[in-house]
Design a protein that fits this description.
Blueprint lengths: L1 H6 L3 H19 L1 H5 L7 H12 L15 H16 L1 H8 L8 H7 L13 H25 L4 H12 L17 H14 L3 H10 L3 H5 L1 H22 L8 H13 L15 H12 L12 H19 L8 E2 L2 E2 L2 H27 L4 H12 L18 H15 L3 H4 L4 H5 L1
Antiparallel strand pairs: 1-2
Helix pairs in contact: 2-4, 2-7, 4-5, 4-19, 5-6, 5-9, 6-8, 8-9, 8-10, 8-11, 10-14, 13-14, 13-15, 14-15, 17-18, 17-19, 18-19
Length: 426
């Protein structure tokens, strides 16, 4: 009995270890960048780049990527790939072998409000299943990139940041460095796939059926959002002076890249008519599906908020009606709906506090607003002074943005818990 007691992790332990994994690894991950002695790169810059990679944000302070050593570039891409699925999930597959339970870790790190569903009876097998899907997608993406014109180094590096929805590139021009339409369509497809709940990918693999994607409410809203955003982007550019060849591919690529919070760029979208970048940034606030490598508040939360709002309107019209929210044939637990509203309130408050901090550092409103949104949603490129990189913002701004990236990756509550006295008394 004693060994069993010692081997079980409490939920509190899971949250603490999760937080320490991300923060400590962020600090250790900065060491190679700092020791590289890159021109104009301070330790704060190195820490910013490390946390941006591990949280798959893709915001960068580096310039001159084309001249950097490939070893450093590959390390940078690897940070995103490891962070994409979550280093904690990898640890979950190892800790049970040491006699330590792992479900608490999995629940603490896995994004989204519906965290208790397992793919397999044992959490170790769940972690292995997720990694198997992740590895397979990365391999397929790299091979297709190579077939359509990238060299092996760029193919593997960009597969890492595509499947992780990270957005780091080995070139200053990001994806604009590659002019092939086939490469861009490949990136579009894998960004969309990577933004879908990995549990659905696992079911598609094991059950050998694809129709469950079309029955999933979150996936349907996710695809609809990306398609609508791409269409509005194209129409806005078409009726403006910014129209040029290949605008269809450009519109779809940027809508998917920003909408899934990947952050690849084929052009400086901040120079497009203001409606487009603001719309794309707004869509990034919603982000990808729960259980994916994407950021944002997650499509499932947006869907719950929409349905909850709709049910409140119905109650106003029919005060005696009993209205329930359903996903498929299952009725949503009211506690989940309440937690989503609580998360949304804390999310908005956190965003506003970050915005105030950035404005206090003499950043203009567009820069501060987009930087706070781009980091909290793990997107990367913002608007204004941070449309290309974050090199010129102050050190205090960079530290605040590092906290923003961690808050976004750990879905705010996980990180804020350690500052709650009641958490330590439990």
């Amino acid at each position: 009995m004693a060994s069993k007691k010692n081997g079980d992790l409490r939920t509190k332990d899971g949250f603490i270890i999760t937080i320490f994994f991300w923060t400590v690894l962020g600090f250790f991950g900065s060491i190679p960048f700092y020791l590289a002695n890159l021109d104009g790169i301070s330790y704060i810059d190195s820490l910013f780049e490390s946390i941006s990679g591990l949280t798959t944000t893709g915001a960068t302070v580096f310039i001159g990527l084309d001249e950097m050593p490939r070893s450093l570039l590959f390390y940078r891409q690897s940070l995103q790939w490891l962070g994409g699925m979550g280093i904690i999930v990898l640890a979950v597959a190892v800790l049970p072998l040491l006699g330590v339970g792992g479900m608490q870790l999995y629940k603490a790190e896995t994004p989204g409000p519906l965290k208790d569903a397992k793919l397999t009876p044992r959490i170790t097998e769940t972690a292995k299943a997720l990694w198997f899907v992740y590895l397979t997608m990365t391999f397929a993406c790299a091979v297709l990139y190579k077939i359509f014109g990238m060299n092996w180094f760029d193919a593997v590096s960009h597969a890492f940041s595509t499947v992780s929805i990270g957005g780091f590139s080995t070139h200053d021009e990001s994806f604009a460095f590659f002019e092939s339409a086939s490469l861009r369509w490949t990136a579009i497809i894998f960004m969309v796939i990577s933004g879908v709940n990995f549990a659905l990918h696992y079911l598609a693999w094991t059950k050998k059926r694809l129709f469950h994607y079309f029955y999933d409410s979150e996936v349907k809203l996710y695809i609809s959002l990306l398609a609508t955003t791409a269409l509005l982007t194209y129409l806005t550019l078409y009726f403006s002076e910014n129209f040029y060849d290949n605008m269809v591919v450009e519109s779809i690529f940027q809508a998917v890249s920003i909408g899934t919070t990947t952050g690849f760029l084929t052009s400086n979208y901040s120079n497009w008519p203001l409606f487009v970048p603001i719309m794309l940034l707004t869509v990034a606030f919603i982000g990808a599906c729960a259980g994916s490598t994407g950021g944002g508040i997650k499509v499932i939360r947006a869907l719950i908020l929409i349905r909850q709002g709709s049910s409140e309107i119905t109650k106003l019209i029919h005060p005696n009606a009993v209205v329930t929210i359903k996903f498929g044939k299952k009725t949503l637990d009211p506690r989940v709906s309440e937690s989503v509203w609580g998360y949304f309130a804390v999310y908005v408050a956190t965003f506003l506090m970050l915005l105030m901090v950035l404005l206090s550092q003499n950043n203009d409103f567009l820069t501060a607003f987009s930087a706070a949104g781009a980091t909290l949603n793990n997107l990367g490129p913002g608007l204004g002074a941070v449309s290309e990189n974050y090199r010129d913002v102050t050190d205090i701004s960079k530290i605040a943005l590092c906290a923003s990236m961690l808050l976004g990756r750990l879905e705010i509550f996980t990180l804020l818990l350690i500052f709650t006295p009641a958490f330590w008394r439990s």
